Amino acid sequence: xxxxxxxxxxxxxxxxxxxxxxxxxxxxxxxxxxxxxxxxxxxxxxxxxxxxxxxxxxxxxxxxxxxxxxxxxxxxxxxxxxxxxxxxxxxxxxxxxxxxxxxxxxxxxxxxxxxxxxxxxxxxxxxxxxxxxxxxxxxxxxxxxxxxxxxxxxxxxxxxxxxxxxxxxxxxxxxxxxxxxxxxxxxxxxxxxxxxxxxxxxxxxxxxxxxxxxxxxxxxxxxxxxxxxxxxxxxxxxxxxxxxxxxxxxxxxxxxxxxxxxxxxxxxxxxxxxxxxxxxxxxxxxxxxxxxxxxxxxxxxxxxxxxxx
Amino acid sequence: xxxxxxxxxxxxxxxxxxxxxxxxxxxxxxxxxxxxxxxxxxxxxxxxxxxxxxxxxxxxxxxxxxxxxxxxxxxxxxxxxxxxxxxxxxxxxxxxxxxxxxxxxxxxxxxxxxxxxxxxxxxxxxxxxxxxxxxxxxxxxxxxxxxxxxxxxxxxxxxxxxxxxxxxxxxxxxxxxxxxxxxxxxxxxxxxxxxxxxxxxxxxxxxxxxxxxxxxxxxxxxxxxxxxxxxxxxxxxxxxxxxxxxxxxxxxxxxxxxxxxxxxxxxxxxxxxxxxxxxxxxxxxxxxxxxxxxxxxxxxxxxx
Lengths: 309, 304
Description:
CATH class of chain B: Mainly Alpha
Oligomer: heterodimer
Number of strands of chain B: 0
Distance between the termini of chain B: 36 Å
CATH superfamily of the largest domain in chain A: MetI-like
Largest sheet of chain A: none
Largest interface: A-B, 118 and 110 residues
CATH superfamily of chain B: MetI-like
Strand content of chain B: under 5%
Helix content of chain A: 55-70%
Shape of chain A: globular
CATH topology of chain B: MetI-like fold
CATH architecture of the largest domain in chain A: Orthogonal Bundle
Distance between the termini of chain A: 30 Å
Order of helices and strands of chain B: HHHHHHHHHHHHHH
Number of strands of chain A: 0
Helix content of chain B: over 70%
Number of domains of chain A: 2
Strand content of chain A: under 5%
Number of helices of chain B: 14
Structural class of chain B: mainly alpha
Order of helices and strands of chain A: HHHHHHHHHHHHHHH
Structural class of chain A: mainly alpha
């Protein structure tokens, strides 16, 4: 019984494959045939990988170089020349204090936490109602959610702005929180799909033990949804950390800057001081890099299940 | 055993049909309220605004019929945004090709496989403002790109990457490609790896070469994800906004659909006109999605 309680680690991306999904089926097995493969093909493959990797890495590394240079050094040296002192963090300190980055991190953190909690509660509640109940107009409600996924939110901001104004949310962090929480339909799908793999017999068992529907949701379903919640936290968390348009449009107050808008506004006064702007840019990128290195596997899975819904 | 039977007797009668009918709606109350407030109200308001000459403040909204739509399809400044979108569409097609190539080669055994995978994917995770700044720096006159071109002996191809109106859209679409390649790549790679390994074994026994394996095993297996990515890429290209907005602010003929709508609504207070633009964009995205659904039907719609 206990083994049945654990649903699969991730909701399997719904591909046409049936049966077992073998990760890396080709590795090793292919090695045997590799002698057939011509050296030219192998060389071509690695050359293309290295060139592409350089195209990705060079633009980032040169900004790191610039951010570690003094302004005199920056003026004197070319972009590809590494800094003389790898521990010159003066630009980082300047970007942190003058660029309102601290406020940006605090605001982003607050919006992130509240929006994630909201998304999880709302998404799981909607999914619970849609997956575990039969009721009139269920098809209509499904349709409403389904059609909404087709509307790219960036196209409707012209009119959403008026709604946010009317609700009195303009220039408060709640504008961003309401929009992040209220327009996230993808996570409802992730939850519905995952919930389908939780056996209904668990609900029935809990009901026999006297739990009401809310108790089942809170004590049975929600804890079992943990892997799906982790997926939503990852993809949604990255999206909120990176969001620019919503805070830019709805929170013009400089005390309400998120990391995106704080960095954006920072460029004005520092115009061409690329060593300082570069440091600000690195301050935004480094947390992403750290999170990516720590949570690689979860991020790949989260992105795959988020995008294919 | 007796306890649970008692529970059954005690609990079941309490649940009247009416309360059972209301329960799902209690769970749906907040989600539906948010869905209506932030998706359906804006979309219907936008439709309404698009037939008015509203400036965003006036209490009266004068109906003007289709004149906003006529403006969108006749004034050159609006027609230009369609042309700008084509750069992003072209870039996203190249992006899909590259993603497919790298996903295929990395699905076979490769040294440093995870390192390459990580490097190719990472840009997708980076904050857009940071990416825009990275590329502003890269494209500067005498900046990184010019320096690298000089180093590899292509000094003659140096340009004003963001200043020359005939090149700037290539630079911006290229930046967008750099950012989104990783998403397509990881989606394709995941799909290729979920093709059962036995198929390759069987194919190899039958003497199929790499190209045939790609053509007859990989490609059919990932058809669905390709068509889905294609839609994401097209609708993403049409609604391109952040990279051009941050990097050039729409100057030099880089105004995209969304930048134009943003400027009309929030800079020139032409909410009616901006809404018409947004409605056109929304319709185009819906039509493209509809075509995709018709061409490649979803085999496993798990909902409803």
